[in-house]
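Practice problem: predict the structure.
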Amino acid sequence: MSEPRLHLWLAERLPDLASRLVDEFGRRVPYYAEQPREVLDGQLRPAIEANLRIAVKTLRQQRTFTVDERAEVIDWSARRAEQGVPLEAVLTAYHLAIELCWQALVEEADEEEARELGALALHFFGYLRSVVPAVALAHAQEGRERYGELRAARRAVLDALLAGAPADAPALRAGVPLAAAYDVLVLRGDPDPDPAVTRQLTRQVQSVLDAHAGGHVLAMLDGMSGTALLPAKGAPDAACGRSARAGRTPARQGGGDGPADALESLVGRIVLATDRAVTVTTAPATGAEAIPGALREASEVAELVLRLGRPPGLYRMTDVLLEYQIARPGNGLAQLAARLDPLDDRPELMETLRVYVDQGHNRRRAAETLQVHRNTLDYRLRGIAALTGLDPSGPELAAALTARALR
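Answer:
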């Protein structure tokens, strides 16, 4: 049986069809319409000719793709992805090419060849069914590689800044603008045993950070924990974070326009997005050279807050300044903690002192928390004073409690 005339005609018209497709893509596909002619002729035309050659070859041999032909399509599509051609433009071009080739065949066919057009249409639909997944795969693979390269470049910038090394060159390669000042954030949250959940939490936290900053935030995250460099939106506020005291939730929602309010709102949005508690400590860094010191400060505050059992929320050094000084190495910490040794055999007195201090030396709130009568509370406070020789309302016993928690 001889080969259908339309098959031969299509094979002979390949160069002309390729030229027509280049012109039509430049006119009807928005991405290609913005490209100069040399790009259309130098990059687009070879890809069109290669794909037409495969399509016509499979048509004439009445078969589907071979493995080698599929690999060739993937290779051409990977080149488009490397050149930054959007996937939607590539897919639009493939569908438009099939449409135009079909129109050319319809115009060429005579009445006796009308039946062949149905078979040609089915073949072209099959071609699209085979080529579209291959194109999508090529773009997905290239996208993963490019994203991996971008992640590595951004990580190099973050590592340099955290180490105090020059970051201008890696920042230029990564396309990351360096800020004049940063809020260095240290995040601490409970780990999740499920790696898939951890990855999801990492994405959620990164998304909240990016939305807050209005751009990508340099961060090294593992679920709810990690480090981030947040471009500062205002001058550091020495009084920020005080809502972390007295057991109140530090990350309140809204309430002001200052940097403290902005960071507290950020913590609140992280909690809302992840449905997980998180402790965030922060220290300001003016200039890249100040970032390593700010990281040390925020990390030490995070460790101190967790050792003290403080509730999750936002903390700065000013929130734990006394506790930070008490925790410095030396004999003073042990001697201060020893002031409570007389209460070791009286756990009800130790608990009373802890609640009394936590409630800001407020007798009514302490009695309610302990669920005892005010007279009972007063009796216990007198017992504490008698055993330790110190006034329970004074600062030394409160400091001794902190020393006990830290030793």
